[in-house]
Amino acid sequence: MKKIRLSCLVLIIFVLMMTVTACGGKDVNPNNEKSNFVEKANDIGNVTLLVTRDFGNQIILNKDVEIKKDWNVIDLLEASTEITTKWDGNFVTGINGLKV
């Protein structure tokens, strides 16, 4: 059961990391002109934070959260939930009381 919870939590964190990464962008324009994509990527916006258990069978949290520039997934989780961590805050071991 702990392996299932750990797998579910790792999957959620991976999806969140990919979502936050997709929201960023770098301007690679050689003329130093900002493209529309980069301007939109630098805007502060919202993401949907979805935390589930049992491989998505039970929704623990489904919330729109404002994301700030230069945030990572841990920052997003800390601002939106109560998390417990290991290894100097670099690994999430629990979200809103649900432990791995």
Describe this structure in words.
- Keywords: Signal.
- The protein is α+β, with helices and mostly antiparallel strands.
- The chain has one domain.
- Helices cover 36% and strands 30% of the residues.
- A three-stranded antiparallel beta sheet has the order 3-4-5, covered by helices on one side. A two-stranded antiparallel ribbon has the order 1-2.
- β1 and β2 form a beta hairpin.
Summarize the structure.
This protein has 100 residues and is of the alpha+beta class. It is 36% helix and 30% strand. It has one domain (2-99).
The biggest sheet amounts to:
3 strands, antiparallel
Count the E strands.
5
Low-pLDDT segments, ≥5 res: none
Per the principal axes of the C-alpha atoms, what is the gross shape? globular
Overall structural domain count = 1
Counting helices, strands and paired strands, the structural category is alpha+beta
Range of helix content: 25-40%
Strand order of the largest sheet: 3-4-5
The pLDDT mean sits at: 75
Taking all Cα atoms into account, the compactness measure Rg is 16 Å
Please count the helical segments: 3
Q: What is the CA–CA distance across the termini? A: 9 Å
Strand content: 25-35%
Spell out the helices and strands N to C.
HHEEHEEE
Signal peptide: 1-22
Keywords: Signal
